[in-house]
Amino acid sequence: MRLFAIADLHLAQTVDKPMDVFGPRWDRHVERICRNWEETVEENDTVLVGGDISWAASLDQARSDLELLHRLPGRKILLRGNHDYWWTTVRKMQDFCQTHGFSSLEFLRNDARLEAGFWVCGTRGWVLPPDEAFREEDEKIFRREVLRLDLSLADLERQRRAGESPGPALALMHYPPLSEKGCPSELSEKLSKAGIAVCLFGHIHHHVPYYEGRPLLDGVRYIMVASDQIGFRPLLIGEAGRFLLDGGEDNA
After folding, report:
1. How far apart are CA 3 and CA 178, in angstroms?
2. What is the rounded (10 degree) CA torsion for 83, 175, 151, 56?
3. Cβ-contact 198, 223 below 8 angstroms
4. What angle do CA 32, 33, 34 make, to 5 degrees?
5. SS in 3 state form for 203-235?
6. I want to staple 123 with a disulfide (CB 3.0 to 4.6 A). Which of 50, 133, 148, 231 is the partner?
7. Phi, psi at residue 139, to the nearest 5°?
């Protein structure tokens, strides 16, 4: 069993949201994602999907996008992104998936889980307080994301203490929890304190040299997995609790 990650699929089968308006690299991006996914991922693998999954505004509108995702190989663990307006309560989404037979889709929300020998936790994140775009209204959302990360990390600690597995821990987020210049945040400090080895994040679609270097900060390796940043192909993270990045072993 292998673990992969990808974010920012930006599926839009029922809404008018063409991604090629953001540049030619997004041309036929869904077709490319599907082709690369089918070439890379096998049925017994797990793929972490780090947000901005569908442009749909409701679960019903997202049905065709979720069905497309379900039909791709492997189990998928979905995390909310800032554009996932269809996202609702976990119970409602689970019931929706059960009703429509989307058995390969699961949701990461305020909890942690063991996948392919890795402990996975995380939360969406938000604009960071040092950012120029941070506004007064962002403070409430940011505090909520800090709380959600606390809940996820607490569940991780509880399960690890139960002795279920000694595997390494990684965090899945949508927003990067550290600035483009490497300044930490309350979120990144919590990851470091919790002993998280790798943090996977999306959201970023422009050139950021610091992120592209997969920086190591306070013991945590940060890796971008936005689809356009990784060639629209799910990135291999590891297998059986062993990190495998860029085709070779990586101690993260």
Report:
1. 24
2. 10
3. yes
4. 90
5. CCCCCCHHHHCCCEECCEEEEECEHHHCCCCCE
6. 148
7. -60, -45
How many Cα atoms within 13 Å fall on the side-chain side of residue 235? Answer: 23
pTM to 2 decimal places: 0.95
Report whether 55 contacts 15 (CB < 8 A). Answer: yes
Rounded Cα–Cα distance for residues 96 and 94 (Å): 5
Type of residue at 191: L
Whether 238 shows a pLDDT value over 80: the answer reads yes
User: Given a cut of 80, is residue 21 above it in pLDDT?
Assistant: no
Domain boundaries, given as residue ranges, for the chain? 2-249
Q: Phi and psi of 182, rounded to 5°? A: 90, 15
Sheet holding 46-50, edge to edge: 105-107, 75-79, 46-50, 2-6, 235-239, 242-245, 248-249
Mean pLDDT score, 132-140:
92
DSSP string, the chain: -EEEEEB---B-SSS---GGGG-GGGTTHHHHHHHHHHHH--TT-EEEEES--B--SSHHHHHHHHHHHHHSSSEEEEE--TT-TT---HHHHHHHHHHHT-TTEEE-SS--EEETTEEEEEE-----TTSTT--HHHHHHHHHHHHHHHHHHHHHHHHHHTTS----EEEEESS-SS-TT----HHHHHHHHTT--EEEE----S--HHHHT--EETTEEEEE-BGGGTTTSPEEEEETTEEEETTEE---
Average pLDDT, the chain: 94
Answer whether 16's CB lies under 8 Å from 86's CB: no
